[in-house]
Amino acid sequence: MPSPYVIEQPGPVYDTLGVAENGDDEEVPLIEIPDETTYPTDGELNLLTVSVVGRPGQTPNWLEVLAAWFDRTRSVIPVEAIFPPGISSEDRDAQNQAAMVDSQQDAIAAALVELDYDFPREVTVAGLLEGSPADGILEEGDVIVSFDGTDVNSITELQTAVREHGTDAPAQVDIIRDGAPLTVEVTPVDRDGTAVIGVGVRMVYEFPIDVELQLDDVGGPSAGMMFALGIVDKLTPGPMTGGEIFAGTGTIDSAGRVGPIGGIRQKLWGAERAGADWFLAPESNCDEVSGNVPDGVTVFAVKTLDEARTIVEDVADGDVTGSYPSCPA
User: Which of the residues 3, 132, 154, 222 is marked catalytic?
Assistant: First the structure.
């Protein structure tokens, strides 16, 4: 008898410094930088995935669910938490693929910022919520330059500026519309305790070099940090890892801030199965890490790409002093 649940379990592991099969069953580098000098790498910088067993109309039976409940490497999740009603499996897959594409662009941006490349980064209006504070004031295609006097170079910076301004007064928003500078006023409103202006935004970049990230059939934004580390390693003389095997997960924005992800328990066990000794986890996921760390895996808590890079380089040099932030095992 089918259950109302699906099962999350460790999925495939991909080394961002290595190769993977594309849709034509050809092995291609996960990261390719064709027109720049790149350097030999060593060790592994593994990104991790989660596989979902089941979908609406094809859920696991109760025996499979019971087995998963008693398996610490897997999680039992209500089917509607993964497949919300009204959204088809095809639409969900398309959304996840779009999130992966956006996260890859953010990873490239974060890596190039980390390496001091200079290039335009634009927070661009992609949509407006009808009746929201920004509706009728901002327009799709507007580039948000600053909010309340704070320069905006990433989505996170915009969200922070709106939140810190609050809802008591209008904020000046400097934008570029159709190539011309313009200043407008928007008054945020409260939504679930957070100040918002009701605008959807996306990042638009003009990269100074060509970086190609190639990974088919993987969706979502959680590979961002590991892709960024791989790019930094390839563009930096000397192997970053020193031959060590690292795994990790975390979203990333263009400023290099690492954000939380889902399925970290399964990713920890995926890392252990891949032979990783070191795991880089978003600091904001530490509460989910505790109690789920496999033996032999050391977990570092990171907030930024620069922190993650420093940890990898110091571990490679044998400088593991215990002074780095970590998630309790």
Answer: 222
